[in-house]
Amino acid sequence: MAGFELDMTFLRSRRHAKWTMFGAEAIPAWVAEMDFALALPIRRAIAELSDRMDFGYPLREGGVAENAVGTAFARRMKSRFGWEIDPQLVQPVAELVQGTFAPIMAFSDPGDGIVLHTPAYPPFYEAISTLGRTLVANRLRDGARRFEIDFDALEAAIGPRTRMILLCNPQNPTGRVFEPAELARIAAIALARDLVVVSDEIHSDLVFPGHRHIPFATLSPEIAARTVTISSATKSFNIPGLRCAVMHFGTQALRDRFHERIPRRLLGAPAIVGIDATIAAWDEGQPWLDEVMDHLAANRDHLVLRVARDLPGVSFHPPEATYMAWLDCSGLKLDRPAQRFFLEEAKVAMSAGETFDPAAPHFLRLNFATSRSILDEIIDRMAAAVRRRGRMGAAAS
Amino acid sequence: MAGFELDMTFLRSRRHAKWTMFGAEAIPAWVAEMDFALALPIRRAIAELSDRMDFGYPLREGGVAENAVGTAFARRMKSRFGWEIDPQLVQPVAELVQGTFAPIMAFSDPGDGIVLHTPAYPPFYEAISTLGRTLVANRLRDGARRFEIDFDALEAAIGPRTRMILLCNPQNPTGRVFEPAELARIAAIALARDLVVVSDEIHSDLVFPGHRHIPFATLSPEIAARTVTISSATKSFNIPGLRCAVMHFGTQALRDRFHERIPRRLLGAPAIVGIDATIAAWDEGQPWLDEVMDHLAANRDHLVLRVARDLPGVSFHPPEATYMAWLDCSGLKLDRPAQRFFLEEAKVAMSAGETFDPAAPHFLRLNFATSRSILDEIIDRMAAAVRRRGRMGAAAS
């Protein structure tokens, strides 16, 4: 058992969403939290603040503390992806949802179209509809070994009022890491149709061996000039409750255009705990994340084997990134949405496919960032529910 | 020495603004941080999160955690001021500056006038100018025993494009707690001229005996319907780095009007540490605050005596609330702004009068939320600098 795994008693003793929302009988495998202890540098950063009660107006690096998130993000992008950015072009925000609402409001008007590859993270739908923008949905094609962008459909869907592509790469929930050729085609379309690209790269730390993340803004200076990259340490370092994320503007001109509509101080500022935890994660957390990634890769491979063996009628493409498996349960021919079936019959709480794509109630998103034993219990419970249903079906016929 | 006082060695060991910005030789008495240990319930709340690494997506009271700030604020307003509010009308934000920018954007347009009683908190000026609104400044009149609103000047200053009064009560930096008659006159003007009132009441926990805070929205239902109250536990409980504040809308209609321009999720959400600390402060922190207020009242009275005795040429009205003294140094006839004089000559870092009112470089804001011994050293240093100057003046003449 890896040193960072937490047991069920401890997990159930806490107050955050994953282990409390569905009650004490269910095993949760839904929201993007990992059942792991935090990296030591993060714990140390929080303990230092806490021990010294250092919660006054925060300064770091000689300026307001939130600016230090920008310099830490620049160091991180350089060390991970060789991407050199100007920290002045980084705007800290509380979380990616705020970081999605803000550029949509800045770079489009009500009624304008926003491209979204579906299935997609539910708050993206919420942002587009709350803000009165028009959803330009382009469903990923379920290919032989992975989901793929249907570029013909994408080109056809873009109209004269389409203003933006909301890109998610690595993609949630399919786990795709888009390849250079795919990104180049998206870039060509963005340039040809004069679109701003908001690139959610929050999963870029969670890429499995054999795949490589390419920040969209690195494709060319012309692309950088129209790209807002949004990211955070919260997903890969397991600290969403600390609320610290970044928006990076590819050029000062793009940032200036943004601030014409959204003044900087309308966005608030992260708390010092989120700031220091994020800096510790990015600067010192990689050894922990390397171990976690080994564990996640092993869990993914284990899930592939066990689904094939014990869950006939369920299939998925092994994710190239993220700790999510996008399970296609259409082979089970269930009488209700898959999420509801497994919650009711197996007491396993996964994320409902229809929240990522209204046409996908036969899909589930399973979070496998847990211990091997909990993952096995999840699959055991699911397999038993499917077997029971099989027997009942046989008895009824 | 009160149990919550911290010594200078400890204070200098931390990273927040107050004790680091002006170097190791200066004694700081500027930004609104208190040199006191945090209330035990706050420390416990933070320790519990930290010990359990409970930093997942936060839930409280069966919903998203930030909503629990609204219910805690409602309990607090009820217990402190007998003010019954609907928690649904409370919107958590990161801090009061965000909570100032947002209603200005929602309830006025560029070019519209915003009334501000001056001297005033510098970010209010920043909000008005950054957002392209017109400052309608009404200077408080320096009366016999306190600063007072010049109502004739106020009425004359309000024009057809004036849309809002930015009220600060208790007032920073003058320490005024406006009385019922004064508030009623402001209310009558707001009604007669159809103005929205943004009422910053962050200092309402810091009122000295003999004075009473009245929430502006309690004046009448008609006033509530046009009042946004902004507040936070950060000032009175010494946790500004945790970034948690509230906006309260007097009616749902006012809130709806606000959200037409400012969607809720554009505002982000506070981190769980700020949420739990705020709830602990409001629900369980009052015994600590009572002790702190006794200490602050004694420090205020001590400051009155010592300024009268040792700082001839300096005068002030003892504040009715806040731990700030607004010192008039005009009697010193200094050759430079008072803040600069005392920083350079006394190594005491106070807040510059001209940042609260461009016409007030001869004023200083002195933060007396510190131990008695540090307060005495501040006054000793100031008095010595004034004496040295007197001798040099005598030598030169």
Give the key terms.
homodimer, 397 residues, alpha/beta, Aspartate Aminotransferase, domain 1, Aspartate Aminotransferase, domain 2, 2 domains, seven-stranded mixed beta sheet, 42% helix
Structure notes:
The structure is a homodimer of 397-residue chains. Chain A is of the alpha/beta class and 397 residues long. Chain A has two domains: 8-39 and 286-396, Alpha-Beta Complex (Aspartate Aminotransferase, domain 1); 54-284, Type I PLP-dependent aspartate aminotransferase-like (Major domain) (Aspartate Aminotransferase, domain 2). In chain A, 42% of the residues lie in helices and 16% in strands. Chain A has 14 helices and 16 strands. Chain A has helices spanning 8-12, 40-52, 66-81, 96-107, 122-130, 151-157, 180-192, 221-224, 234-237, 252-261, 272-284, 286-310, 338-346, 372-396; strands spanning 27-28, 59-60, 63-64, 90-93, 113-118, 134-139, 141-142, 147-148, 162-168, 196-200, 227-231, 245-249, 324-328, 348-349, 351-352, 363-367. In chain A, the strands form five sheets. Chain A has a seven-stranded mixed sheet, sandwiched between helices. A three-stranded antiparallel sheet of chain A has the order 13-16-15, with helices on one face. In chain A, helix 2 runs antiparallel to helix 11, helix 4 (96-107) runs parallel beside helix 5 and helix 12 runs parallel beside helix 14 (372-396). The longest helix of chain A has 25 residues, at 286-310. The mean pLDDT of chain A is 97. At the A-B interface, helix 2, strand 2, helix 4, helix 5 and helix 11 of A face helix 2, strand 2, helix 4, helix 5 and helix 11 of B.
